[in-house]
Amino acid sequence: MKHFLVFIVILASNAIFACGFYPYGEDVRFSFFNPENFNYYWYSGFDYSSDLFWSNQKLADGIIKMDANEKLWMQYCKNKVSEEDVKVVLFDLRLEDITDKNTNEMLRYLYKAKDLDAVNYLKFAKKCEVFNVFYDDPWEQNITSLKVENRTKLIDEAILLSNSVKNKNLKQRYTFLAIRLAYYNGDFEKIRTLYTKVFESQKQDNILKYWSLYFRTFAEPDKIVANFYASQVFANAPDKRFMISQSFDSKIPLDDVLKYAKTNKEKANVYLLGGIKKADRSLDYLKQVYKYNPEFDGLSFLLLREINKIEDWIFTPYYSLFNPSVSSYDENEKNSVEKIMKRVEKDRIYAGEVLDFIKNVNLKKVQNPIFWKTSKAYLSFVTKDNQGCLNQISKLKKKISKKDSLYNQIEIIKALALTANQPVGKAIILNEVKPVLLKNKNDKKFLFAIGRELEFKGNRIDASFLYSKLEEHSGSDYYNFAYWKSPKAKIGYYTDYYSDYFTYINVFYTPEQVQVIIDETVESEKDSDKFSVWKHSFMKNEIARLYDLIGTKYIRQNKLEQALFYFEKDNKSYKEINYSDCLWEKENCDGRLKDPFLVLKYTPEFAVQKKIFRFNKYAITQKLISYIKIASNPVEPNKDYYNFLIANCYYNMSVYGSLWQMRRYGQGETSNIRDFPIEDNNEYYECNLAKKYYALAYKNAKTPKFKALCLSMMGRCEANKLVHKYPNDYNNRIENYDDFLLSKNKYYQDLKSKYADDYVDLMSDCSSFEEYFKARR
Predict the structure, then answer these.
(1) Residues 30, 449 contacting (CB under 8 angstroms)
(2) Helices 168-185 and 188-198, interaxial angle, to 10°?
(3) Contact of 132 with 124, CB cutoff 8 Å
(4) Which domain of life is it from (predicted)?
C-alpha cells in the first residue's frame, strides 16, 4: 500500500506543472500610458509590446484616413475631388472601369481637364498590378518564365513612357512602376540604375522617391548602406515601415551608418529606427533624435515607446512580481522579492534620467507639447514623485477637453498618484478616485494597481473589494486580466500566481479581515451611491462563500468551536462534501461518503459502517468536537477508541485523506508538496495532529495488536512528515524506500522492535487493518 501512496504523491506533484496555461508576455504586462491616446497611428505597428512588430492595423481598420500617395493624387487634382473617390480609383476600379463614362469624381476631373497622360498612367498601373507578386512554378509548366517575360515587357514599356511623358510627377510614377516590377523580376541592377537616374538627385522629396528607395534598399549589397536607406524609408514612407524595419540590421554599428547621412534629418532618421529596434534603454537615441530634428513626430513616438518600456520594467514586477513582459533578466534565476525590487529601483533611477531629459527639452520645438507634458507628469509618478505628478496634472487638465481620450488618460495617472501619495495606514479610496474607477471599471490591471497601492499602504479591505471586480465580465480583450504573485511564497495556491480575489484572500487574509469584508458588504445594503453599489456588487453574492472561508481558516488554526460557528452561519451546507473512495472496500459505496472517522483513503474500513452519511463541514466539525470531548473525559473507558477516530479524521483532513475540503479549495493543489505561506501548511502535509491523537490512542490501548496498529499509524504520519521536510532525501532513496523509512522513522523502528510479528502485516498488507482494529478488546 505504501508504494501505491508514494506513486500517487509523485504523479500528482509533477502533473500540475506539466501542461496548461501560464501567464506571460502581454498577459502580465502593466501599462497605464496608452498609445491609443496620442494618435501616433502611423507608428502603431511599433508600439511597445511583448509581441513582435506587426503591420499597421490602424491603416487596415480605416483609422488612418489617407496615405501619402492618396494625398499626392489629391494635390494632383488640385483638391477638387473627394478622398473617397481617389481611394476608389486606386484600390477598387479595374482596368476596364477607367473610361470617360465613369462617374467617379477623380476620373471626371482628369477627363474634363483632358489630362489623358494621367488617365493612361492609371490604366497602365492597373495592367501592372497582377505582376506585383512572386510566382512559383511547382509543376514546371513555365508559368514563372512566362510571367517574367511579360513583366520584362512592362518594365521596358514603363521606362519608355517615363522618358516620353512631360509631367514630372507621372515620369516618377512610371519609374516607380518599373522599379517595383524589376524587384519582382529579381533584376536588382535595373533597380539601382533606375533609382540613380530618376530619384537619387531629386531635390524635392515625395512618397514616390521613398517607395522607390524601399525597393532600392533590398537591391543594395552593402549592408551598411542598406541600413541607411532603410532608416530613410522608415521615416518617410509610413506604409512601408513594417517591412523595411525587418531589413534593418541592428548588429551593424550606428556610427558606420551615420557616415552616409548628409543632413541632420537623415541623422535623426537613423537614430529613430535604431532606437525603435532597441529592446533595452534608448535614452541616448532619444537625445540624438532631439538634437538633429526636434520637430520630428518620430521623436515623440520614440519617447512614448521608451515610457511604455519603463512602465513594463517597473510596474509589471512592482505590482505582480512577474518579470517584465519583454525581459533581459535571467529567466532561470531564482529571483527573490528583494532582487526583483532592487532591479525595479534601478529602473526607477533610469526613469528619472528620462524625466530629466524631458525637463530640459524646449517644448516650443517639439511636435506635440501636450504629449511631452503628459509624459513628464507620468514619469514623475513612476519615479514616486507623486505630488509633483499631481501638480503637473492640475495644469494639464485646464488645456484638455473632457471629451478627449487624453483627459481620461490623465485621470488614470492622477488616480494612481493620489492613491500612492497617501500615508501608510491611512490610505482609502479617495472621492476623486472613485469616478475614475467607475469610468475604467473594465480595465482590470488598472483596478488591480489601485488595489495593490491600497494594500501596500495597509488597506487590505478596500483592496479585496477591487480584486473581487477582476472576476466580473470585462469584454473581449484577451489581455484584460490581472495575474500576480505573492511576496511571501515562491509557489502559490494552485501554482505560483493568483488571478482572483478569493484564492488570494484565502491564503493571505486573517479570519478577522474576512469578517470585516463581510460586515462592510452587509452594511453596504444601506448605501445608494453609485460607487458603493458597484464596489460591493460582486461580494454581495459571496457572503456564504466567505463564511465558509472563515470557518475553514479556523479549522486550519484548529479552533473548532469558532469554525463550527461560521459553518453554522452558512446554513450548515455551503458545500457538501461528496467524496466516495471505494478502493479495496467490501461493499458498493456509490453516492455516499464513507465515515471519515472509520475509513482512511486507500484503506479498508476499520469497522462496519451501519448507516449512510452525507457530510458537510458543519457536520464533520460538530462530530469531531463531540469525540474530542468524550476522549478528554477522565473517566471515559474507551479513550483509545475515540482518540483513534479523532486521529483518523485529522488524517483525512490532510493531503493524504478524503476530507481535504476541510482545509483547502480545489482538488488540484491537494497533492503538491511545497513551501506555502498558509498557516497549516505543515499540518496539511505532515499529519501532526493525527499523530498526536494516534499517540493518545496508543497510550490508552489495552491490547498489543491495537497498540501495534496505533504505532503503525504514527509511523505513517511520521513518514509523511519526512517526505515533506526532506524531499531530496525522499527522491534520492525512493528505490530503497523501506530502508529509508526505517532509518529515519523512530515509530517504524519501535514497531519493528516491539511488535516484530506484526511489523510485516502492518507495513505491507492494508487488509490486515480491520483485524488489528477489532483486536482493540
Answers:
(1) yes
(2) 170
(3) no
(4) Bacteria
DSSP single-letter state for residue 36: G
DSSP string, 79-91: T-S-HHHHHIIII
Report the Cα 20 to chain-centroid distance in Å. Answer: 14
Taking the alpha carbons at both ends of the chain, their separation in whole angstroms is 26
In sign, the C-alpha dihedral spanning 549, 553, 555, 559 is negative
Most confident stretch, 319-333, 441-455, 491-505:
441-455
Q: In this structure, what are the phi and psi dihedrals at residue 227, rounded to the nearest 5 degrees?
A: -60, -40
What is residue 356's three-state secondary structure?
helix
Query: What is each CA distance from 360 to 54, 347, 364, 376, in whole angstroms?
Result: 33, 20, 12, 11
Give just the sign of the alpha carbon dihedral 428, 432, 433, 434.
positive
Could you give the CA distance from residue 242 to residue 377 in angstroms, rounded to a whole number? 31
pLDDT band at 290 (very low <50, low <70, confident <90, very high): very high
Q: What is the spatial distance between Cα 202 and Cα 209, in angstroms, rounded to a whole number?
A: 8
Please report, as a single letter, which amino acid is at residue 412: I
Distance CA 145, CA 646 (A): 88
- CB within 8 A of 491, min separation 6: which ones? 672, 674, 675, 676
Q: Residue 317 has which C-alpha cell?
A: 514586477
CA distance 380 to 385: 5
Residues 134-193 pLDDT 10s: 544 433 344 344 458 889 999 999 999 999 999 999 999 999 999 999 999 999 999 999
Paired with 422 in beta bridges are none
